[in-house]
Design a protein that fits this description.
globular; five-stranded parallel beta sheet; alpha/beta; Rossmann fold
């Protein structure tokens, strides 16, 4: 199974990884994992002042901070995974990558806010569920 793991480095990502570790059917060489992190873009004015190379380095460093413990997790499990960082809004990045990559499943952590909060604020998980054609496994 081709699985897209959407991560943000939060405690909800850690819960998702703990869930995967606790369920042998999700780990193993029969699955192909791509780990995706969407780095929030800097405001236009800040990005313009920094310079292209410094901006690229900033985005790479931000992504690597999220990826480092996840790389360790997959290494401990003996699983190779592909790591990708995109600059942009998380829900849009997850939906676009899932569609482009032909994934069988999206796995992601969710805060589990109530309906009122989702209605007023929205969430990445809610947006992904609404916009993707790929099945989603949400871990709370």
């Amino acid at each position: 199974m081709k699985i897209l793991a959407a991560v943000d480095g939060s405690p909800y990502t850690k819960r998702m990884l703990a869930y995967l570790a606790a369920h042998d059917e999700w780990l193993g060489t029969q699955h192909e994992y791509t780990v995706l992190h969407a780095v929030q873009p800097l405001p236009g004015r800040a990005a313009a002042v920094i310079g292209r190379e410094a901006l690229k380095a900033y985005y790479a460093d931000a992504a690597e901070k999220v990826f480092k413990p996840i790389r360790s997790f997959f290494a401990r499990q003996g699983i190779e995974a592909t790591f990708e960082a995109k600059v942009g809004q998380p829900a849009e990045a997850v939906v676009a990558r899932a569609a482009k990559g032909g994934f069988d499943l999206i796995v992601m952590g969710s805060r589990g806010h109530g309906s009122l909060v989702k209605l007023m604020v929205g969430s990445v998980a809610t947006k992904v569920l609404a916009e993707t054609q790929v099945p989603v496994l949400l871990i709370r």
